[in-house]
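Long-time lurker. I teach an intro course on protein structure, and each term I like to show students one example going from raw sequence to a predicted 3D structure in C-alpha coordinate notation. This year I'd like something fresh instead of my usual example. Would anyone be willing to generate the C-alpha coordinates for the chain below so I can use it in lecture? Attribution to the forum is fine with me.
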Amino acid sequence: MNYKEYIAGKLNIDGVDKDTLITFIEIPPNTDMGDFALPCFKLSKILRSSPIQIAENLASSFECDGTVKECTAVNGYLNFKINRDDFAITLLSEILDKGDLYGSDKIGEGKTVCIDYSSINIAKPFHIGHLSTTVIGSALCKIFRFLGYKVVGINHLGDYGTQFGKLIVAFKLWSSEQAVKEGRLKELTRIYVKFHDQAKLNPKLDDEARHYFKLIEDGDEESNKLFELFKKITLEEVDKIYKLLNVSFDSYAGESFYNDKMAPIVEELKEKNLLKESDGASIVDLEEYDMPPCLILKSDGSSLYATRDIAAAVYRKNTYNFDKNLYVVAYQQNLHFKQFFKVLELMGKEWAKDCIHVAYGMVSLESGSMSTRQGKVVLLEDVIAKTIEKAYKVIEEKNPDLKDKERTARAVGTGAVIFGALCNNKIKDIVFSYDRVLSFEGETCPYVQYTVARCNSILNKCGEPDKYQLPSINADEYAVLNELGRFKEVVKSAADKYEPSLVTRYALDLASAFNKFYFTCKIAGEEQNIRNFRLSITKAVKTVLTNALGLLGIETVEEM
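-- Reply from a regular --
Happy to contribute to a lecture. Here you go:
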Protein backbone atom coordinates (compact mmCIF):
# COMPACT_ATOMS: atom_id res chain seq x y z
CA MET A 1 0.00 0.00 0.00
CA ASN A 2 1.06 3.59 -0.67
CA TYR A 3 0.52 4.91 2.86
CA LYS A 4 1.27 8.52 1.97
CA GLU A 5 -1.38 8.44 -0.74
CA TYR A 6 -3.85 6.76 1.62
CA ILE A 7 -3.29 9.32 4.40
CA ALA A 8 -3.44 12.28 2.00
CA GLY A 9 -6.75 10.96 0.61
CA LYS A 10 -8.28 10.86 4.10
CA LEU A 11 -7.12 14.35 5.14
CA ASN A 12 -9.13 16.36 2.59
CA ILE A 13 -7.76 19.85 3.41
CA ASP A 14 -9.39 22.81 1.64
CA GLY A 15 -7.01 24.61 -0.71
CA VAL A 16 -4.46 21.78 -0.78
CA ASP A 17 -4.72 19.07 -3.44
CA LYS A 18 -3.94 15.44 -2.71
CA ASP A 19 -0.74 15.31 -4.80
CA THR A 20 0.72 18.30 -2.92
CA LEU A 21 -0.17 16.74 0.43
CA ILE A 22 1.63 13.53 -0.56
CA THR A 23 4.86 15.53 -1.09
CA PHE A 24 4.44 17.13 2.37
CA ILE A 25 4.10 13.83 4.27
CA GLU A 26 7.41 12.44 5.53
CA ILE A 27 8.81 9.57 7.58
CA PRO A 28 9.90 10.73 11.07
CA PRO A 29 13.46 9.93 12.20
CA ASN A 30 12.05 8.46 15.43
CA THR A 31 9.38 5.84 14.73
CA ASP A 32 8.24 6.00 18.37
CA MET A 33 6.47 9.23 17.43
CA GLY A 34 4.81 7.72 14.39
CA ASP A 35 5.32 5.99 11.08
CA PHE A 36 4.40 9.03 8.98
CA ALA A 37 4.12 12.73 9.79
CA LEU A 38 2.67 15.88 8.24
CA PRO A 39 4.67 19.02 9.21
CA CYS A 40 1.83 21.54 9.47
CA PHE A 41 4.07 24.60 9.13
CA LYS A 42 3.89 23.85 5.40
CA LEU A 43 0.15 24.54 5.59
CA SER A 44 0.34 27.59 7.84
CA LYS A 45 0.41 30.20 5.07
CA ILE A 46 -2.35 28.49 3.08
CA LEU A 47 -4.70 28.00 6.04
CA ARG A 48 -3.67 31.23 7.81
CA SER A 49 -3.28 29.57 11.16
CA SER A 50 -0.45 28.39 13.40
CA PRO A 51 1.05 24.94 12.74
CA ILE A 52 0.09 23.82 16.27
CA GLN A 53 -3.56 24.81 15.76
CA ILE A 54 -3.71 23.21 12.32
CA ALA A 55 -2.28 19.92 13.66
CA GLU A 56 -4.76 19.84 16.54
CA ASN A 57 -7.74 20.58 14.27
CA LEU A 58 -6.71 17.89 11.78
CA ALA A 59 -6.08 15.33 14.55
CA SER A 60 -9.55 15.88 16.03
CA SER A 61 -11.28 15.34 12.67
CA PHE A 62 -9.15 12.46 11.32
CA GLU A 63 -10.96 9.10 11.37
CA CYS A 64 -8.62 6.24 12.23
CA ASP A 65 -9.28 2.77 10.83
CA GLY A 66 -7.70 -0.63 10.34
CA THR A 67 -4.92 0.89 8.21
CA VAL A 68 -4.08 4.04 10.19
CA LYS A 69 -4.53 3.13 13.84
CA GLU A 70 -3.57 6.41 15.50
CA CYS A 71 -3.35 10.13 14.65
CA THR A 72 -1.91 12.65 17.12
CA ALA A 73 -0.84 16.30 17.09
CA VAL A 74 2.61 17.02 18.55
CA ASN A 75 4.22 20.49 18.37
CA GLY A 76 2.80 21.38 14.95
CA TYR A 77 3.25 17.88 13.49
CA LEU A 78 0.42 15.49 12.66
CA ASN A 79 1.76 12.01 13.43
CA PHE A 80 0.27 8.77 12.12
CA LYS A 81 0.77 5.20 13.32
CA ILE A 82 -0.15 2.48 10.85
CA ASN A 83 -1.20 -1.12 11.37
CA ARG A 84 2.31 -2.52 11.62
CA ASP A 85 1.22 -6.16 11.35
CA ASP A 86 -0.43 -5.61 7.97
CA PHE A 87 2.55 -3.51 6.88
CA ALA A 88 5.05 -6.24 7.81
CA ILE A 89 3.16 -9.07 6.11
CA THR A 90 2.49 -7.11 2.92
CA LEU A 91 6.00 -5.65 2.66
CA LEU A 92 7.92 -8.89 3.22
CA SER A 93 5.63 -10.77 0.86
CA GLU A 94 6.20 -8.18 -1.89
CA ILE A 95 9.99 -8.10 -1.49
CA LEU A 96 10.38 -11.87 -1.48
CA ASP A 97 8.00 -12.22 -4.42
CA LYS A 98 9.58 -9.53 -6.62
CA GLY A 99 13.22 -10.18 -5.73
CA ASP A 100 15.60 -8.17 -7.93
CA LEU A 101 12.64 -6.20 -9.33
CA TYR A 102 11.62 -4.91 -5.91
CA GLY A 103 11.78 -1.12 -5.89
CA SER A 104 11.44 -0.89 -9.68
CA ASP A 105 8.57 0.93 -11.32
CA LYS A 106 6.94 1.68 -14.66
CA ILE A 107 6.56 5.43 -14.16
CA GLY A 108 9.08 6.04 -16.95
CA GLU A 109 7.40 3.87 -19.57
CA GLY A 110 7.29 5.62 -22.93
CA LYS A 111 9.78 8.29 -21.80
CA THR A 112 13.41 8.71 -22.84
CA VAL A 113 16.27 10.18 -20.80
CA CYS A 114 19.60 11.07 -22.41
CA ILE A 115 22.48 11.16 -19.92
CA ASP A 116 25.78 12.72 -20.98
CA TYR A 117 28.52 11.59 -18.59
CA SER A 118 32.18 10.63 -18.20
CA SER A 119 33.09 12.40 -21.47
CA ILE A 120 36.76 11.51 -21.35
CA ASN A 121 39.38 13.30 -23.42
CA ILE A 122 41.11 11.30 -26.11
CA ALA A 123 44.84 10.71 -25.49
CA LYS A 124 44.61 11.86 -21.86
CA PRO A 125 44.72 9.56 -18.83
CA PHE A 126 41.56 8.52 -16.99
CA HIS A 127 42.31 10.18 -13.65
CA ILE A 128 40.52 10.53 -10.33
CA GLY A 129 38.92 13.77 -11.55
CA HIS A 130 36.82 11.73 -14.01
CA LEU A 131 35.49 9.47 -11.27
CA SER A 132 32.53 11.59 -10.13
CA THR A 133 31.00 12.22 -13.56
CA THR A 134 31.49 8.55 -14.47
CA VAL A 135 29.91 6.93 -11.42
CA ILE A 136 27.18 9.58 -10.92
CA GLY A 137 26.14 9.30 -14.57
CA SER A 138 26.27 5.50 -14.54
CA ALA A 139 24.17 5.33 -11.35
CA LEU A 140 21.58 7.72 -12.83
CA CYS A 141 21.36 5.52 -15.94
CA LYS A 142 20.69 2.47 -13.77
CA ILE A 143 18.18 4.31 -11.55
CA PHE A 144 16.16 5.69 -14.46
CA ARG A 145 16.14 2.29 -16.20
CA PHE A 146 14.95 0.73 -12.91
CA LEU A 147 12.00 3.14 -13.04
CA GLY A 148 11.04 2.11 -16.55
CA TYR A 149 12.63 4.89 -18.61
CA LYS A 150 14.43 4.27 -21.89
CA VAL A 151 17.92 5.56 -21.13
CA VAL A 152 20.56 6.65 -23.64
CA GLY A 153 23.97 6.81 -21.94
CA ILE A 154 26.27 9.10 -23.93
CA ASN A 155 30.04 9.41 -23.66
CA HIS A 156 30.55 12.82 -25.33
CA LEU A 157 34.22 12.23 -26.12
CA GLY A 158 36.63 15.14 -26.05
CA ASP A 159 38.05 14.35 -29.48
CA TYR A 160 38.27 17.77 -31.08
CA GLY A 161 40.66 20.69 -30.65
CA THR A 162 44.20 21.99 -30.88
CA GLN A 163 45.46 19.48 -28.30
CA PHE A 164 45.48 16.85 -31.05
CA GLY A 165 47.75 19.07 -33.13
CA LYS A 166 49.99 19.32 -30.06
CA LEU A 167 50.08 15.55 -29.74
CA ILE A 168 51.03 15.08 -33.39
CA VAL A 169 53.87 17.60 -33.04
CA ALA A 170 55.03 15.88 -29.83
CA PHE A 171 54.73 12.47 -31.47
CA LYS A 172 56.88 13.51 -34.43
CA LEU A 173 59.52 15.12 -32.20
CA TRP A 174 59.82 12.73 -29.27
CA SER A 175 58.04 9.44 -29.94
CA SER A 176 57.19 6.76 -32.49
CA GLU A 177 54.33 4.47 -33.43
CA GLN A 178 56.09 1.58 -31.69
CA ALA A 179 56.61 3.61 -28.50
CA VAL A 180 52.94 4.66 -28.46
CA LYS A 181 51.70 1.11 -29.03
CA GLU A 182 53.91 -0.18 -26.21
CA GLY A 183 53.56 2.71 -23.74
CA ARG A 184 49.93 3.45 -24.66
CA LEU A 185 48.31 6.25 -22.62
CA LYS A 186 51.37 6.71 -20.42
CA GLU A 187 53.46 7.46 -23.50
CA LEU A 188 50.82 9.87 -24.87
CA THR A 189 50.70 11.64 -21.49
CA ARG A 190 54.51 11.82 -21.38
CA ILE A 191 54.81 13.56 -24.75
CA TYR A 192 51.79 15.82 -24.05
CA VAL A 193 53.41 17.06 -20.83
CA LYS A 194 56.74 17.46 -22.64
CA PHE A 195 55.09 19.54 -25.37
CA HIS A 196 53.83 22.09 -22.83
CA ASP A 197 57.21 22.25 -21.11
CA GLN A 198 58.96 22.85 -24.44
CA ALA A 199 56.32 25.28 -25.75
CA LYS A 200 57.18 27.66 -22.89
CA LEU A 201 60.70 27.82 -24.32
CA ASN A 202 59.67 27.70 -27.98
CA PRO A 203 56.24 29.32 -28.66
CA LYS A 204 56.48 28.35 -32.34
CA LEU A 205 55.47 24.85 -31.29
CA ASP A 206 51.94 26.18 -30.64
CA ASP A 207 51.79 27.46 -34.24
CA GLU A 208 52.79 24.01 -35.48
CA ALA A 209 50.10 22.46 -33.31
CA ARG A 210 47.40 24.69 -34.82
CA HIS A 211 48.69 23.76 -38.29
CA TYR A 212 48.41 20.02 -37.61
CA PHE A 213 44.92 20.35 -36.11
CA LYS A 214 43.87 22.18 -39.27
CA LEU A 215 45.27 19.23 -41.25
CA ILE A 216 43.04 16.88 -39.19
CA GLU A 217 40.01 19.06 -39.94
CA ASP A 218 40.91 19.16 -43.64
CA GLY A 219 41.09 15.37 -43.84
CA ASP A 220 44.88 14.97 -44.18
CA GLU A 221 45.49 11.21 -44.32
CA GLU A 222 48.65 11.02 -42.19
CA SER A 223 47.34 13.34 -39.47
CA ASN A 224 44.01 11.53 -39.26
CA LYS A 225 45.73 8.16 -39.13
CA LEU A 226 47.65 9.31 -36.05
CA PHE A 227 44.51 10.83 -34.52
CA GLU A 228 42.64 7.51 -34.99
CA LEU A 229 45.56 5.64 -33.40
CA PHE A 230 45.46 7.93 -30.35
CA LYS A 231 41.67 7.49 -30.14
CA LYS A 232 41.81 3.67 -30.47
CA ILE A 233 44.44 3.33 -27.73
CA THR A 234 42.50 5.65 -25.40
CA LEU A 235 39.20 3.81 -25.78
CA GLU A 236 40.85 0.42 -25.31
CA GLU A 237 42.54 1.57 -22.11
CA VAL A 238 39.55 3.32 -20.55
CA ASP A 239 37.26 0.42 -21.45
CA LYS A 240 39.19 -1.70 -18.94
CA ILE A 241 38.28 0.80 -16.22
CA TYR A 242 34.66 1.06 -17.38
CA LYS A 243 34.35 -2.72 -17.11
CA LEU A 244 35.72 -2.69 -13.54
CA LEU A 245 33.26 0.06 -12.58
CA ASN A 246 30.29 -1.66 -14.31
CA VAL A 247 29.88 1.34 -16.60
CA SER A 248 28.58 1.15 -20.17
CA PHE A 249 27.39 3.55 -22.88
CA ASP A 250 24.91 3.53 -25.73
CA SER A 251 26.74 6.21 -27.71
CA TYR A 252 30.33 7.40 -28.05
CA ALA A 253 29.42 10.35 -30.28
CA GLY A 254 32.03 12.93 -29.30
CA GLU A 255 32.75 16.50 -30.32
CA SER A 256 34.14 15.56 -33.74
CA PHE A 257 30.86 13.77 -34.57
CA TYR A 258 29.15 17.18 -34.73
CA ASN A 259 31.74 18.74 -37.05
CA ASP A 260 29.32 18.69 -40.01
CA LYS A 261 26.27 19.53 -37.90
CA MET A 262 27.30 22.99 -36.69
CA ALA A 263 26.84 24.95 -39.95
CA PRO A 264 23.03 24.50 -39.89
CA ILE A 265 22.99 25.75 -36.28
CA VAL A 266 24.98 28.86 -37.19
CA GLU A 267 22.66 29.43 -40.17
CA GLU A 268 19.57 29.11 -37.96
CA LEU A 269 21.00 31.61 -35.47
CA LYS A 270 21.56 34.04 -38.35
CA GLU A 271 18.04 33.54 -39.72
CA LYS A 272 16.56 34.27 -36.30
CA ASN A 273 18.71 37.41 -35.93
CA LEU A 274 20.37 36.04 -32.84
CA LEU A 275 23.95 36.18 -34.13
CA LYS A 276 25.94 39.36 -33.68
CA GLU A 277 29.53 40.28 -34.48
CA SER A 278 31.86 41.32 -31.68
CA ASP A 279 35.57 41.97 -32.34
CA GLY A 280 35.36 39.68 -35.37
CA ALA A 281 33.75 36.83 -33.40
CA SER A 282 30.10 35.71 -33.71
CA ILE A 283 28.12 35.82 -30.46
CA VAL A 284 24.62 35.61 -29.03
CA ASP A 285 24.13 38.62 -26.75
CA LEU A 286 22.80 37.50 -23.36
CA GLU A 287 23.22 40.78 -21.46
CA GLU A 288 19.44 41.02 -21.05
CA TYR A 289 19.64 37.78 -19.04
CA ASP A 290 22.56 38.91 -16.85
CA MET A 291 25.04 36.64 -18.62
CA PRO A 292 28.14 37.29 -20.74
CA PRO A 293 27.73 36.73 -24.48
CA CYS A 294 27.67 33.14 -25.71
CA LEU A 295 30.56 32.72 -28.20
CA ILE A 296 29.49 30.76 -31.28
CA LEU A 297 32.37 31.31 -33.72
CA LYS A 298 35.90 32.64 -33.18
CA SER A 299 37.20 35.44 -35.39
CA ASP A 300 38.84 32.81 -37.64
CA GLY A 301 35.46 31.09 -38.10
CA SER A 302 36.24 28.05 -35.93
CA SER A 303 33.64 26.67 -33.52
CA LEU A 304 33.61 26.55 -29.73
CA TYR A 305 32.21 24.26 -27.02
CA ALA A 306 28.85 26.05 -27.08
CA THR A 307 28.50 25.59 -30.85
CA ARG A 308 29.11 21.88 -30.57
CA ASP A 309 26.88 21.48 -27.50
CA ILE A 310 23.97 23.26 -29.22
CA ALA A 311 24.41 21.00 -32.26
CA ALA A 312 24.57 17.94 -29.99
CA ALA A 313 21.39 18.92 -28.12
CA VAL A 314 19.48 19.40 -31.38
CA TYR A 315 20.80 16.07 -32.70
CA ARG A 316 19.76 14.25 -29.51
CA LYS A 317 16.25 15.72 -29.61
CA ASN A 318 15.85 14.79 -33.29
CA THR A 319 17.35 11.31 -32.82
CA TYR A 320 16.03 10.21 -29.42
CA ASN A 321 13.13 12.63 -28.80
CA PHE A 322 14.19 12.83 -25.17
CA ASP A 323 11.95 13.85 -22.29
CA LYS A 324 15.04 14.79 -20.26
CA ASN A 325 18.56 15.56 -21.47
CA LEU A 326 21.00 15.44 -18.55
CA TYR A 327 24.61 16.66 -18.48
CA VAL A 328 26.70 15.28 -15.61
CA VAL A 329 29.43 17.92 -15.57
CA ALA A 330 31.31 19.73 -12.76
CA TYR A 331 29.80 22.93 -11.38
CA GLN A 332 32.70 24.93 -12.84
CA GLN A 333 30.73 24.78 -16.09
CA ASN A 334 27.53 26.27 -14.59
CA LEU A 335 27.73 29.42 -16.72
CA HIS A 336 28.41 27.49 -19.92
CA PHE A 337 25.24 25.43 -19.49
CA LYS A 338 23.10 28.42 -18.54
CA GLN A 339 24.31 30.18 -21.66
CA PHE A 340 23.75 27.48 -24.21
CA PHE A 341 20.40 26.41 -22.65
CA LYS A 342 19.30 30.05 -22.98
CA VAL A 343 20.45 30.12 -26.63
CA LEU A 344 18.36 27.01 -27.32
CA GLU A 345 15.39 28.73 -25.71
CA LEU A 346 15.92 31.89 -27.81
CA MET A 347 16.07 29.68 -30.91
CA GLY A 348 12.50 28.65 -30.10
CA LYS A 349 13.36 25.13 -28.88
CA GLU A 350 10.57 24.66 -26.34
CA TRP A 351 12.35 21.50 -25.15
CA ALA A 352 15.27 23.61 -23.86
CA LYS A 353 13.58 23.39 -20.44
CA ASP A 354 14.21 19.63 -20.52
CA CYS A 355 17.99 20.11 -20.73
CA ILE A 356 19.40 19.87 -17.21
CA HIS A 357 22.91 20.39 -15.88
CA VAL A 358 23.58 17.84 -13.12
CA ALA A 359 26.45 19.63 -11.42
CA TYR A 360 28.92 17.97 -9.07
CA GLY A 361 31.86 19.12 -6.96
CA MET A 362 35.46 19.17 -8.09
CA VAL A 363 38.16 16.70 -7.09
CA SER A 364 41.57 18.00 -6.07
CA LEU A 365 44.67 16.46 -4.54
CA GLU A 366 45.84 17.18 -1.01
CA SER A 367 48.75 18.98 -2.68
CA GLY A 368 46.43 21.11 -4.87
CA SER A 369 44.49 20.94 -8.13
CA MET A 370 45.23 18.42 -10.89
CA SER A 371 46.69 19.21 -14.29
CA THR A 372 47.38 16.82 -17.17
CA ARG A 373 49.68 19.44 -18.75
CA GLN A 374 51.88 19.42 -15.66
CA GLY A 375 51.62 15.66 -15.18
CA LYS A 376 49.90 16.21 -11.79
CA VAL A 377 47.21 13.53 -11.78
CA VAL A 378 46.19 10.46 -9.81
CA LEU A 379 45.35 7.73 -12.31
CA LEU A 380 42.05 6.00 -11.63
CA GLU A 381 43.48 2.61 -12.60
CA ASP A 382 46.13 3.05 -9.88
CA VAL A 383 43.49 3.89 -7.28
CA ILE A 384 41.38 0.87 -8.21
CA ALA A 385 44.43 -1.42 -8.27
CA LYS A 386 45.42 -0.25 -4.76
CA THR A 387 41.93 -0.78 -3.32
CA ILE A 388 41.73 -4.27 -4.83
CA GLU A 389 45.20 -5.07 -3.45
CA LYS A 390 44.23 -3.86 0.02
CA ALA A 391 40.96 -5.82 -0.08
CA TYR A 392 42.89 -8.96 -0.98
CA LYS A 393 45.30 -8.45 1.94
CA VAL A 394 42.40 -8.01 4.38
CA ILE A 395 40.77 -11.20 3.07
CA GLU A 396 44.07 -13.09 3.40
CA GLU A 397 44.34 -11.96 7.02
CA LYS A 398 40.75 -12.52 8.12
CA ASN A 399 39.48 -15.32 5.89
CA PRO A 400 42.39 -17.07 4.14
CA ASP A 401 40.24 -20.08 3.16
CA LEU A 402 37.68 -17.97 1.31
CA LYS A 403 36.86 -19.29 -2.15
CA ASP A 404 37.50 -17.06 -5.17
CA LYS A 405 39.44 -14.44 -3.21
CA GLU A 406 40.39 -12.56 -6.39
CA ARG A 407 36.77 -11.97 -7.42
CA THR A 408 35.79 -10.92 -3.89
CA ALA A 409 38.74 -8.52 -3.64
CA ARG A 410 37.82 -7.02 -7.01
CA ALA A 411 34.18 -6.51 -5.97
CA VAL A 412 35.17 -5.01 -2.60
CA GLY A 413 37.96 -2.83 -4.00
CA THR A 414 36.01 -1.35 -6.91
CA GLY A 415 32.94 -1.04 -4.69
CA ALA A 416 34.95 1.05 -2.21
CA VAL A 417 35.97 3.48 -4.98
CA ILE A 418 32.44 3.86 -6.37
CA PHE A 419 30.79 4.08 -2.96
CA GLY A 420 33.32 6.65 -1.77
CA ALA A 421 32.51 8.89 -4.73
CA LEU A 422 28.74 8.54 -4.22
CA CYS A 423 28.59 8.67 -0.43
CA ASN A 424 28.07 12.43 -0.08
CA ASN A 425 25.89 14.97 -1.84
CA LYS A 426 27.22 15.27 -5.38
CA ILE A 427 27.76 19.05 -5.24
CA LYS A 428 30.42 18.79 -2.50
CA ASP A 429 34.06 19.26 -3.48
CA ILE A 430 36.31 16.31 -2.74
CA VAL A 431 39.94 16.46 -1.66
CA PHE A 432 41.23 13.08 -2.78
CA SER A 433 42.98 11.09 -0.08
CA TYR A 434 44.25 7.53 -0.47
CA ASP A 435 43.80 6.96 3.25
CA ARG A 436 40.09 7.79 3.07
CA VAL A 437 39.33 5.87 -0.12
CA LEU A 438 41.28 2.83 1.08
CA SER A 439 39.59 2.81 4.51
CA PHE A 440 37.49 -0.26 5.21
CA GLU A 441 36.20 1.01 8.55
CA GLY A 442 33.00 2.90 9.39
CA GLU A 443 30.38 3.92 6.83
CA THR A 444 31.92 2.26 3.82
CA CYS A 445 30.99 -0.06 0.98
CA PRO A 446 32.73 -3.09 2.57
CA TYR A 447 30.43 -2.60 5.59
CA VAL A 448 27.34 -2.87 3.37
CA GLN A 449 28.78 -5.75 1.33
CA TYR A 450 29.65 -7.57 4.56
CA THR A 451 26.03 -7.12 5.71
CA VAL A 452 24.83 -8.85 2.52
CA ALA A 453 27.35 -11.66 3.12
CA ARG A 454 26.11 -11.93 6.73
CA CYS A 455 22.51 -12.30 5.51
CA ASN A 456 23.64 -15.01 3.11
CA SER A 457 25.50 -16.83 5.88
CA ILE A 458 22.38 -16.82 8.10
CA LEU A 459 20.23 -18.17 5.26
CA ASN A 460 22.79 -20.88 4.47
CA LYS A 461 22.89 -21.90 8.13
CA CYS A 462 19.17 -21.72 8.92
CA GLY A 463 17.61 -22.41 5.53
CA GLU A 464 15.07 -20.46 3.50
CA PRO A 465 12.17 -18.87 5.42
CA ASP A 466 8.95 -20.88 5.62
CA LYS A 467 5.38 -19.78 6.38
CA TYR A 468 4.74 -18.23 9.77
CA GLN A 469 2.06 -16.71 11.97
CA LEU A 470 3.18 -13.14 12.59
CA PRO A 471 4.54 -12.74 16.13
CA SER A 472 4.43 -9.43 17.96
CA ILE A 473 6.94 -7.09 16.33
CA ASN A 474 9.68 -5.63 18.52
CA ALA A 475 11.40 -2.27 18.03
CA ASP A 476 14.53 -3.61 16.28
CA GLU A 477 12.47 -5.74 13.89
CA TYR A 478 10.27 -2.80 13.02
CA ALA A 479 13.27 -0.52 12.51
CA VAL A 480 14.47 -2.88 9.75
CA LEU A 481 10.98 -3.18 8.24
CA ASN A 482 10.64 0.60 8.27
CA GLU A 483 13.92 0.95 6.34
CA LEU A 484 12.88 -1.74 3.86
CA GLY A 485 9.64 0.14 3.25
CA ARG A 486 11.51 3.31 2.31
CA PHE A 487 13.40 1.82 -0.65
CA LYS A 488 10.87 2.61 -3.40
CA GLU A 489 10.59 6.21 -2.27
CA VAL A 490 14.37 6.61 -2.05
CA VAL A 491 14.86 5.37 -5.62
CA LYS A 492 12.24 7.77 -6.98
CA SER A 493 13.69 10.64 -4.97
CA ALA A 494 17.19 9.86 -6.28
CA ALA A 495 15.82 10.14 -9.83
CA ASP A 496 13.82 13.31 -9.11
CA LYS A 497 16.81 15.03 -7.51
CA TYR A 498 19.49 13.45 -9.76
CA GLU A 499 21.19 12.41 -6.53
CA PRO A 500 22.55 8.82 -6.33
CA SER A 501 23.97 9.52 -2.86
CA LEU A 502 20.41 9.08 -1.52
CA VAL A 503 20.68 5.38 -2.46
CA THR A 504 24.16 5.17 -0.92
CA ARG A 505 22.99 6.65 2.37
CA TYR A 506 19.93 4.42 2.32
CA ALA A 507 22.11 1.31 1.96
CA LEU A 508 24.12 2.38 5.02
CA ASP A 509 20.94 3.03 7.04
CA LEU A 510 19.44 -0.34 6.14
CA ALA A 511 22.72 -2.16 6.88
CA SER A 512 22.97 -0.41 10.24
CA ALA A 513 19.37 -1.27 11.19
CA PHE A 514 19.87 -4.90 10.19
CA ASN A 515 23.13 -5.29 12.12
CA LYS A 516 21.47 -3.95 15.26
CA PHE A 517 18.61 -6.43 14.68
CA TYR A 518 21.16 -9.23 14.16
CA PHE A 519 22.83 -8.61 17.52
CA THR A 520 19.58 -8.26 19.51
CA CYS A 521 17.26 -10.77 17.82
CA LYS A 522 18.22 -14.45 17.92
CA ILE A 523 17.26 -16.51 14.85
CA ALA A 524 18.72 -20.04 14.89
CA GLY A 525 17.43 -21.14 18.29
CA GLU A 526 14.03 -19.44 18.25
CA GLU A 527 10.66 -21.16 17.93
CA GLN A 528 9.41 -21.72 14.38
CA ASN A 529 7.18 -18.64 13.90
CA ILE A 530 9.74 -16.15 15.16
CA ARG A 531 12.56 -17.93 13.32
CA ASN A 532 10.77 -17.85 9.96
CA PHE A 533 9.66 -14.24 10.44
CA ARG A 534 13.24 -13.16 11.16
CA LEU A 535 14.57 -15.26 8.29
CA SER A 536 12.08 -13.44 6.01
CA ILE A 537 13.45 -10.13 7.26
CA THR A 538 16.99 -11.37 6.61
CA LYS A 539 16.23 -12.48 3.06
CA ALA A 540 14.41 -9.20 2.36
CA VAL A 541 17.41 -7.20 3.58
CA LYS A 542 19.77 -9.22 1.37
CA THR A 543 17.47 -8.59 -1.61
CA VAL A 544 17.08 -4.86 -1.06
CA LEU A 545 20.75 -4.19 -0.28
CA THR A 546 21.73 -6.11 -3.41
CA ASN A 547 19.25 -4.04 -5.45
CA ALA A 548 20.49 -0.78 -3.92
CA LEU A 549 24.16 -1.53 -4.53
CA GLY A 550 23.31 -2.72 -8.05
CA LEU A 551 21.86 0.72 -8.84
CA LEU A 552 25.24 2.18 -7.91
CA GLY A 553 27.13 -0.29 -10.09
CA ILE A 554 28.47 -2.24 -7.09
CA GLU A 555 28.62 -6.03 -6.88
CA THR A 556 27.75 -8.00 -3.77
CA VAL A 557 29.56 -11.15 -2.63
CA GLU A 558 28.23 -14.31 -1.02
CA GLU A 559 31.11 -14.52 1.49
CA MET A 560 33.68 -12.13 2.94
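Some talking points for your students: The radius of gyration is 28 Å. Residues 325 and 547 are 25 Å apart (CA to CA).
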